[in-house]
Amino acid sequence: MKRATALLRAALAFRFDTLVARTTIVLILGIATVQIVGVQTYRASLSADLSDATEQRLADRLLTIKRTLAGLPEGLREDAAHDLSSGAIEAHWSKDERAVEADATNRLWTDLQTRLIELAPELGEGGLIVGEQDGASADPHVALISMRLSDGTWLNVSLLSWTPRIPGAPQTVMVAWMIAAVALATAVLLVRWISRPLARFAEAANGFYTTGKVAAVPETGPYEVAVLARAFNDLQDRLARSIDDRTQALAAVSHDLKTPITRLRLRAEEIDSEPLARSIAHDLDEMERMIDQTLSYLRGDRSDEAIRPVDLVAILETVTDDQTDQGAVVSFTGPRAAVVPGRRLGLKRAFANLVGNAVKYGGTARVSVSERGQEAVVVIDDDGQGIAAADRDRALLPFVRLESSRNNKTGGFGLGLTIARAVIDGHGGTLELGEGPTGGLRVTVSLPRQGR
Amino acid sequence: MLQQSTAVQATEGKVLVVDDDGEILSLVAKFLRANGFVVSTARNGAEMKAQMQSSQVDLVVLDIMLPGTNGLDLCRALRAESTVPVVMLTAKGDEIDRIVGLEVGADDYLPKPFNPRELLARIKAVLRRSRSVEGSAPQGSGRSIEFEGWQLDTLKRELVNPGGVVVDLSGGEYDLLLTFLEAPQRVLSRDYLLDSTKNRTLDVFDRSIDVQVSRLRRKIEAQGELIKTIRGAGYLFAAAVRRK
Lengths: 452, 244
Description:
By secondary structure, chain A is α+β, with helices and mostly antiparallel strands. Chain A contains 13 helices and 12 strands.
C-alpha cells in the first residue's frame, strides 16, 4: 500500500517540462511517425509488386489456355479447358460469352482488363470481357473473364478471390521498433549527460543564495555548457566580491560605533536627572542591539561556540524572565528540562529575538516547549495581528520589515527573524511562521534532540 | 531607587585602567572614582608597566585592542609576574569564548560597548573573590567551582549540571550563584545578596531577592534542595563547594 502510493507520487511528480521528458516525447512522436509512414510505404510498394507479378502470371496462363484451346477441335476443347484449370483458375469453353461487361465504376475489373491487354496484347484480339458472372447469385469476389476465340466461340475463365494478398512483415516491424527503442534510450542518456551540468548550476545558484558561499560550477561538459559555466562562475565571483565589500564596510561602521556608544554610556552616568538618564540608557540599549544584530547577521552567526548538550528550558526561562523584568506580559510552560545538542549563546540570541518580536509586535508572548518524538518543539504565540500567509516567507529575509504602522515605535533592521532562523538552521532545526489561536503570529521552532 | 552611591567608602580599592582611547580612559576613571575607587590610567603596555611598578594596584581593567602590544600578550606577561586580578575589555561578545580558550589568565571579560554598571559589578565581584581567596586560603583560585556534581566556569560564566548539560543562567542568577558559592554554609542576608546582584543595568527594574532566588532554584534544584531558606535571616547554600 505504502509502496503503491509512493509509486503514484513518483508518477505524479514526473515533470513533462524537463529536457529529458521533452526530448523523449519529441523522439517518440518522430519515431512513431517514421514507423507509420514507413510501414505504409512498404505495404504499398509490396502490394504493387505483388499485383504486377500476379497479373503477369495470370496473363500468361490465360494466353496459354487460349492458344491451346484455339488449336484443338471443338469436341476436345471442354476437356482441355478442364485439364488446364487449377487452383484459383477454372476454365470452360462455350459457344457464347458468360461474362458481363463490368460497368465503368467497378475499377477492379476494368483495371484488370486494361492491365491484361497491356501485358499480353494477344488476349485482347477478338474480344476480352472482364466482369462478374452472368447471373444474380454472382459472388462479387469471383471475376469472370471471357475471351473470344478466332472462330467466334468463347473461353470463360472464372477467377476465384481476386484480391492480391499482402504478406505482413512482423519481423521487420519488430526490428524497426527495437532500433527505435535503442535510439530512444541513447537519446535519453545523451540528454541526461548534457543536462546534468545544468542541475549543478541550479544547485550552485541556490547554495550561493542561501549560504552566501561561492560554489564554482565545473567548467566541463559540452562546449556551450562549459562557456555558460565560465560565465556563471565569473558572475558568482563578482557578486560575492561586491557583497563582501559592502559587508565589510557595514561591519566596519557597526564596529566603530561601539566606541562612541561606550563613551555615551559613561557620560550618561553623569546625568543627575534619573528619567533622562533612564531614557538615554534605553536609546543606547536599542542602538547596541541594532549593531549587535547587524554584526551577528554579517558574521552569519557562525560563532566559535561548540555544540554541547544544553537545556532549552533554562534558556527560555532566562529569555522570558528578562522580558518580564522589562515589564512585558510573558508566560512560559514546559517540562523541568528539555535537552538538545546546541550552542547556548546562539540559541539564547535566537529565542531572545523571537520572544522580543512577540512582545514588540504582539504585546504578549506565550512560550511553551514540549518534546515530540525526536524533536524538541518551542511554540511562541503573541496577540498581535500576525503575518499574512503570503508575507511569511518574506518576513524571514534580512532587512525586511513588514509592519508599516508601527515603524516608529520599533527599532531594528528587520534582522531578528533572519538571525533566529540562521541559528536554528545551524542546529539542523526548522523555524516556521503560522497563525496562533488568537490570530497572532505563531512561531514554531523544532530542534533535533539527537545530534546529526 | 537610585541610592547606590550614598555609601561611598573612602576607598573600594585601587584600579588601573588601560585603554588606548583617551576619552574612554578618562570617563571610566571618573566613573570608578565616583564609585569609591582610586584610579590610575595607562594608554599602552609601557605606561602600564610603569604604573604597576610605582604603586600597589588591586585590579587592572585591560582593553584588548591596545596599540603596540597585543592585549592578550600583555595579560599573559602581567600574569607571569603578578597575581593582580584582571578584567578584560573585548570587542565582541562572541570573541570571549575564543579568548577564554587562549587561557591568558584574565579573571573576567566584558564585551564593548559595556554598561558602566556592569563593569562596576564585575570589578567588585572579582575583588571580593580575590580577597576571599586571600582570606580563606584552603580554596584554590582556579576558574572552575564545583558543587554536588555541578560545575561553574567563572570565565565563560557557564554552568554545567551533573549530567554534562549546559544550563543557562541570567546575569543576575549567575551573580547570585557566585555569591552563594563564595560563602557556602553561611547564612547570607537578603541585603547582602541584593548588594551583590543589583544594578546591573539602569533600564531593568530590580527584582526582589526572593524572586531571584526562586528563579535560581528552579534551574539548579531538580535533584534536591541546595539553597535553604532561613526564616527571618536570609538564605544559606547547603552544598559543599570545591574550587579547582
